[in-house]
Predict the 3D structure of the following.
Amino acid sequence: MKNPLEILNVDLGERSYPIYIGQGALGEQLILEKYIDSSQVLIVTNETIAPLYLSKFVDQFPERLDVKTSILPDGEIYKTLETLNKIFDALLESRCNRQVTLIALGGGVIGDMTGFAAACYQRGVNFIQIPTTLLSQVDSSVGGKTGVNHRLGKNMIGAFYQPKCVLIDTTVLSTLPDRELSAGLAEVIKYGAICDRQFFEWLEQNMESLLLRDNAALTYAIKTSCKKKAEVVAKDEKESGIRATLNFGHTFGHAIETQMGYGQWLHGEAVAVGMCMAADFSEKLTWLSPEDNARIRALCLKAKLPVMKPQAMVAEDFIKHMKVDKKNVSASIRLILLKTLGEARIYDCTDVALLNEVINRQDQVPS
Ligand code: NAD
Ligand code: GLY
């Protein structure tokens, strides 16, 4: 017998919404319909996901709904204003009105773009997240950050715009490439490192099961991650404080993604290296112990993630990009560091020499 879906809530007053998690959630048409406003629905997905899941998903909608699809090219490189226009083309060509519901069926790229399209179309329409990668299930589908990249900076154009619900089907992870699974695990490790030492220890003990895609282990990791994220977002939706801690590893990571060319390094891979760099910085300040720093590196390696910066990148490359990070206040570079394993702190860095030293240390640390 199928287990019932687990339900978490993101508490944001009148914009609160549920996260449904479980095997077969994609087929829970009756749940989905509760969050569809009118007869118009546009499902946004990409060329990789469409052949795997789209027709079965579309077929379950009742005839009274007018369901259209928009199939975008696949890849971080297409997370642009130009591709966003394809969603607007589909909406306008189908004469979609303000009551239309946009459904994002895909990973973080599709979720971020569909959410941004929903925020902009006719100044805001209904939107549902159906994340299909581990990374999007544990992070990007929850919390309402939407947007696209600019050639000069990652996610630089966007909006905070919350979905009406998030539907997470763990069975779709069976088709996810191994490299993408590992990339998602980087964001899972992040939650343990920044706010839950026990969860970090659980990950140390259960990484093999996660890599083998054991459903119980994956469901537990997804549920715990979503719970952590929902708690933080409920406290600080627009990132004026604690939400910034969710960017542990991201300041260094975004620099890698931008410098290396979008899509060359997966977001989760860049975040893994970024977490190791932020942990090194935390150790340098004598916050994080050398032993706990080594555990972060070891867990990333266990998850089959990179822990060393791209050889082609030097400290100046990082600093150039880190200076245009959205978190920065005045002239300093805002970093998320670890006071200890399981506790993050915001740190405004003005000592570029120290930052240089930490980045260069990467050339000496064996992986
Ligand atoms: P992605 O969306 O590019 O998906 C990764 C790859 O997996 C793609 O090729 C995709 O087509 C494929 N795929 C998706 N689901 C699949 C499935 N079930 N089976 C087989 N293949 C599948 O990448 P991602 O890692 O999901 O997301 C990364 C993006 O998310 C980045 O753009 C990042 O900036 C963004 N992000 C946003 C937030 C946020 O809060 N909004 C948080 C973290 C990351
Ligand atoms: N991924 C960071 C955030 O949602 O705030």
In short: The longest strand covers residues 153-160. The chain has a mean pLDDT of 95. The domain at 179-361 is CATH 1.20.1090.10 (Dehydroquinate synthase-like, alpha domain).
